[in-house]
Amino acid sequence: MSEVSIIYQSDSVTPEALAHLGEGHIAYVKQVRSEDVPDLFPQAPKIAPGLKLFALHAADGTPIMLTDSREAAIANAWSNELQAVSVH
Q1: List of residues 6+ apart from 77 with CB closer than 8 A
Q2: Distance between CA atoms of 42 and 14, rounded to whole angstroms?
Q3: Residue from 48, 49, 85, 50 nearest 70 by CA
Q4: Distance CA 58, CA 87 (A)
Q5: pLDDT at 34 (0 to 100)
Q6: Which of 69, 64, 70, 36 has the alpha carbon at shortest distance from 50?
Q7: How far apart are CA 57 and CA 13, in angstroms?
Q8: φ, ψ at 68 (rounded to 5°)
Q9: Whether the Cβ atoms of residue 54 and residue 30 lie closer than 8 Å to each other
Q10: CA atoms within 13 A on the CB side of 68
């Protein structure tokens, strides 16, 4: 069995190309604090401070939805034919 090595050279990928990587195919789930919601989702109603929520973002960082469970965010990604990945 042979091994395949992939070498990533960061200077060969432009920031613009990196921003579009996975576009339309990948979304990411990130835990957020309720205090950060107004910056991510300006149209969201006021939410009590101290809550842990989950935001679903498009591959380019565009916020898609906000929910109180990771499972709901993943289900929304799947229903939109997006592969969900977690961001820590």
Answers
A1: 27, 29, 56, 64, 83, 84
A2: 30
A3: 85
A4: 12
A5: 95
A6: 36
A7: 22
A8: -95, 5
A9: yes
A10: 4
pTM (2 decimals)?
A: 0.70
CA-CA distance, 73 to 82, in Å (whole number)? 11
At 82, which amino acid appears?
L
CA dist 37 and 83 (Å) reads 23
The pLDDT of residue 6 is: 57
Two structure tokens written together for 1: 């069995």
Low-confidence ranges of the chain (pLDDT < 50): none
| Beta-bridge partner residues of 88 | none
- Residue by residue, DSSP assigns the chain as ---------GGGS-HHHHHHTTTTTEEEEEEEEGGGHHHH-TTSPP--TT-EEEEEEETTS-EEEEES-HHHHHHHHHHTT-EEEEE-
